[in-house]
Every structure is written in structure tokens, then in C-alpha cells.
Amino acid sequence: MKHNKVVPYHDKMEDKKTQVTSMFDRIAPYYDLLNRMLTLGIDQRWRKKAIATLGDRHYTRILDLATGTADLPVAMKKSLRVDNIIGLDISPKMIDLGKKKIQEKKLAESVSLEVGDSENLRFEDNYFQAATASFGVRNFSNLQKGLDEIYRVLDKDGKLMILEFSKPTIFPFKQLFNLYFKFILPTVGRITSKDPKAYKYLYESVQAFPDYDDMADIIRKSGFINVTYKPLTLGICTIYTGKK
Ligand SMILES: C[S@@+](CC[C@H](N)C(=O)[O-])C[C@H]1O[C@@H](n2cnc3c(N)ncnc32)[C@H](O)[C@@H]1O
Fold this sequence. Notes:
This protein is of the alpha/beta class. It has helices at residues 16-39, 42-52, 71-79, 92-104, 143-153, 173-193, 198-208, 212-221; strands at 58-65, 81-89, 111-115, 128-134, 154-165, 225-232, 237-243.
């Protein structure tokens, strides 16, 4: 799959996983600020809408993959009935900042964060009732392997929710958004995060990444059923859901 080959630092010999980890370690201190700035705060609304797809049942355990600085677990604790959330991320620096956030919000009793690779989960089969990932799966080195692992650790009827960037299709929004995404966003990202490549990688990785029906097919390939998707904000991102 060509999207698995899109990497942040083209000049380096390291594999995607190593490059992605060091990129997120580097931009971690600026990550939340840039999210709010570059989306004018809409990213938090997208997370809320995505969480709403999990409904109002009671969850014992939810796994949040590529949890970053734990924005999704924090939002889930506000609106879901869930006892425990485990947030997992490959970047130790993102996890450090996430842990600080969880402490500040006094959520440490029910939310725990750890460093780990979504493509190699330490959990036993059928352990979680739901698995979530916001803006994370695009960064996996092997998307299908990550989805297979998520399927494995979900219990019977376990729910999957993925929120990921997609490519707007409607004229002229598609063209206008593309100008912003390709030129303005990488410039603001470069100045603020001091990483010249990270926000160029964001644009390139979204262009190469499967969306809508293509993504739904990939999710089904890992065994998920009842796969649906719902574009948000004219297709800037899309919520995908499925069931084991
Ligand atoms: C764009 S951030 C999203 C963070 C968070 N979910 C959010 O909504 O803001 C992507 C995250 O994916 C993590 N990541 C990339 N590949 C991963 C993998 N194989 N396993 C776990 N985390 C991974 C990165 O370290 C990064 O923190």
C-alpha cells in the first residue's frame, strides 16, 4: 500500500515507525497549540462527534490507540459511561504530556497512558469493549496489521471508532481547502513547531491515505462488520465505525 510508504523525513534511511516516533517526540510540546490554531478549535468538536457514535451503553474498558496527548480519553470521560480507558502511543514525549494532562484533570484513577505500538498490542484477545483512534491510523507503518490487532483485542460486539483526515471532494471547497492545507498550514506548522517537515508530512500523508469507501473496505478486510462512515466539515475528516 503506497500510503504506508509516506514518511516525514525523506532524506533519512530509517523506517516509517522510527521517523514517525521521532517526529511526534519533536513536535509534542507544540502539538495541542497547533491543533487548536490550525483548526480554529474545530478539532475538539470533531472528537466529540466521533465519541457520540459510541452511544450511551456502559463500557468497562476502552482502548484509545495513538492517543497522543490524551485529548480523546479526556473527552470520552466527559460524555461516556466508561470505567477504564487505556491510551497507548508510540511517542514517549506525547505520552509524558498526556500524563500531565490526565493528572491536571484528576482523571488518573480511570485513565492510564502507556508507550506502545498499535501494530503489536500487549493485551489478550477480546479484552476491550471499544477501541478508538483519532488522527492516528494514518501514521501506522502497516495499517492492516494495526486494524487486525485492534480486531483481536476487541470482545464480541466490540466497537471500533476511527476519526481520520479525508480529502474534501466538493468544488470549490476542495480547491480552497487544498490551498490552505498544502501551503498555509505547513508554513504556520514549521514556524511554530520548529520542525520543517512535520506539517508537510501531514499534507502528504493525507493525500496518500485511503478515505471513504476505500478506507471502509480496508476496515472490513480486518474482519469488522457494520462498517459505516460519516464525513465531517465537508470531508476534512471522516468518522469510521465498525463492529467485531
Ligand atoms: C496526529 S497524532 C493524534 C493524537 C491524538 N489521538 C489526537 O487526537 O490528537 C498521531 C499519534 O499517533 C501516534 N502513532 C503513530 N504510529 C503509532 C503506532 N504504530 N502505535 C501507536 N501510536 C502511534 C503518534 O506518536 C502520534 O502521537
